[in-house]
Write a structure and sequence with these properties.
Layout lengths: L2 E5 L2 E3 L5 E8 L8 E6 L6 E6 L6 E3 L7 E6 L4 E6 L8 E7 L10 E5 L2
């Protein structure tokens, strides 16, 4: 069955950086586009970034544009999100998603930004 396992979150100081990973299994990862979403406490889930199956094209939410880089390693069936210049408003649970099944999300990884 489809499985997406996110990792890499934690407590980061404002202005810091992070690299999130998402390991996919149960389907052929390299055939499908993939995305990152996040959900902050008390807020709806929001789009962060997505990437085509080959990695040729990416797209970002305005809130992270210029600070985030989405990438993938299809040989490892892994999706990445690198972010820098982190702000308190980046605090959220981050989830990855695949166009194989847009309704399925992993358990997420918590990112907290605080000094």
């Amino acid at each position: 069955q489809v499985q997406l396992v996110e990792s890499g979150g934690g407590l980061i100081q404002p202005g810091g950086a992070l690299r999130l990973s998402c390991v996919a299994s149960g389907f052929t990862f390299r055939y499908y586009a993939a995305s990152w979403y996040r959900q902050a406490p008390g807020k709806e889930r929001e789009f962060v970034a997505d990437i085509t199956a080959t990695g040729a094209r990416t797209d970002y939410a305005d809130s992270v544009k210029g600070r985030a880089t989405i990438s993938r390693d299809n040989a490892k069936a892994t999706l990445y999100l690198e972010m820098n210049s982190l702000k308190p408003e980046d605090k959220a649970v981050y989830y990855c998603s695949s166009s194989y099944d847009r309704d399925y999300l992993g358990q997420g990884t918590q990112v907290a930004v605080s000094s």
